[in-house]
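Subject: for your reference before the review

Hello V.,

The reviewers asked for a structural picture of the protein, and I figured it would be easier to keep everything in one thread rather than splitting it across files. Below is the amino acid sequence we used in the manuscript, unchanged from the supplementary table.
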Amino acid sequence: MFRDATLIAGKDLRVELRSKVTLQQVAPFAILVLILFGVALDPDRGILTRASAGLFWVAVLLCGLLAIQRAFTIEAADGGRDALRLSGLDPAGIFLGKAAAIFVQLAALEGVLAIGVVVMYGTAVTGVVLLLATCLAATAGLAAAGTLYGVLAAGLRVRETLLPILLLPVLAPVLIGATKAFEAALGGAAADGWPWCGLLVTFALLYTTFGTLAFGPLLEES
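And here is what came back from the structure prediction:
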């Protein structure tokens, strides 16, 4: 399973490196979102600083939708999805590999966005460990849930519009928990953020477990 996951993750990441879609389209979009938020709230720097955690994760969520759609769009061309079904790879390994590739892309984008928040919004970081733990847990949850719902919508003609409708309500706990944990890490009491980080870990484990079990039948139906 883990060998197959490594193969799929390596394949998806190589496709992204060659196409440069994440670098040339998704990353500039993420920075543009932060700039637009900053312009809208710039007259009151206090509000901008207090809202920086929520703005960060809204930008991550929007970029995550693009990355998830991209991960399954590349399989739709030239019978790629049929090739996956007939490849003999473990469905759980395919799920973990695609989720890992999305995780790596989102983690890289979060690094860029974090620098943007600190530089443009003037946000101070007081809980680095909590910040990193929150990013890891929330990104894992986003990647696992996104991969699961991505394959669910992959075979439908309206997948571009259906995926956000399916995914956004599911990711609401991630957005809320990550925002609360970030607020504690950015100028608040770090101890108040760890329960929210625990919620994110639970969410990530739940969807990772469910995805490894359900991805095979969903792939066959997509």
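For the response letter, the relevant points are probably these. The chain has one domain: 2-221. Residues 2-221 form one domain.

Happy to draft the paragraph if you're swamped.

O.
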